[in-house]
């Protein structure tokens, strides 16, 4: 009975959300391209609570013509203090929504439980709007709130599967786990299938966005500067998209495309957060991370790890197949369009082999690929935001016709079919960006497995080697300096020379800002502003290099793994077998999308817990000096080993009983 009562408002939020009415959208035509239109609105300020009510906020879609409809969703936030900085954030996947980053990592707000059956948002102290205007984009087409054609579908929450046309509710399945809603068409042909095609779509999207919001574009006397930060599969998106922007800029200059009908997108910095950039460099570090990490964890049998390493180097192994793939792309599909079947087959087979024999042996450990400290299922970051974004009031506030899902399996399938994961050698692109004066920062949490810091460090060294003789010499020689976050805390170690930096963030998993929000913000701000990654001090980048040990050798112990918290909207990723059985047999109660054995379990937790922001800071802080500004160190703190982040992370885990942060992408790829 309780189960039914507490689910009532939840069911209404989904079953009544088919083709939800769109209200108060303003639609304009791009001044640069009459074929592109932009529909947008300013949502209620409490939809995503910002530090100051004066901060601008827009949600909307850029409608781009083509062989299929492309309606790309964006959520824009003005900075807490006036600034000309514009940061674009992209989650990865492929197929992962950037709402993951907005609501669980670095956006202005986070979702909290206000009461039984009531969710809301509060200000995130270390949101990146503290230093920049922010633009979150759901891409490629059909991801998150982006869509081709609104389509009525059925959603099976037990498997996170979508079906169209709508299916008859299975008689053996609880009603609350099989829902009707509005989503994209689920047509795999109506989205990008390679990073290259996704990148061109985003270039067109930005042309439309900047046409609608010229105040964030170039003026007569200056060229707009953009900062692109991308996570996970963003290790591919970031360099590829940035390269496309640079190429389009050159085409504007040489007249290949009209200058008066386009906008120059001048990239100032590129940040890659736990990015998977290139398996040729990073893949050997999967077995290494599994058995030889800085936490003393031997996750799998060393013999199994040796076999995985052998699968990379052996004749006909992972390395050989990647090279074969790239040769085929260069010879038969140089534009990376993904429409040459023989090339797709070679590259897809390479990805499948590398994934199965080099990456997946770690699965023996039963631990999360996003955090070696956590056994599966992993409740961190929490999935509360999934429930929030599927409430009618929120969908109405942002003007969405669609229900929300955090990962699109059609995009996953499209990218898998072309073997996109292995197609591009992106290190030369990153090196070219450095030579063009773009700042490049690699940021890696040291508890991530799937895009681990050992491989990330190797990528940074490979980039330096291909950039110039100076970078090839001075970047590896630069020592690791402490990342001084505040007067008492060292958040990691950084190697920096010139415009290139590599930051190892202590006690952080895949989604670094969710684990270490203050550290992540300070590193972001220092990359964006071109200051010392170690201290935040103003430096001469042409002559600056960090000093310290040549290797980052800091070690720590793993914290205890948290117990499972089961979210109805993320059953496959967050619920253990007992919890799944409870749901299947209609047992327990669902409150704010979370399964409890009894309603009293929620009441006792809610009455005894005080919501805190990620990292432990109070969510009720209102002092202006706390909500704005960067930190510049004048001395190096000497914290105990415990204060290097472990205690901060345990404080984050306390939030699991009153979840406020959100969820990682549920995907066979990356977030």
Automatic annotation (TrEMBL):
Keyword annotations of the record: Carboxypeptidase, Glycoprotein, Hydrolase, Protease, Signal
Gene Ontology BP terms: proteolysis
Protein EC: 3.4.16.-
GO MF, one annotated term: serine-type carboxypeptidase activity
This protein's GO CC annotations: fungal-type vacuole
PROSITE patterns named in the record: CARBOXYPEPT_SER_HIS, CARBOXYPEPT_SER_SER
Keyword Chaperone appears in the UniProt entry: no
Pfam families in alphabetical order: Peptidase_S10
Coiled coil: none
Protein family (similarity comment): Belongs to the peptidase S10 family.
Designated name of the protein: Carboxypeptidase
Organism (species): Hyaloscypha bicolor E
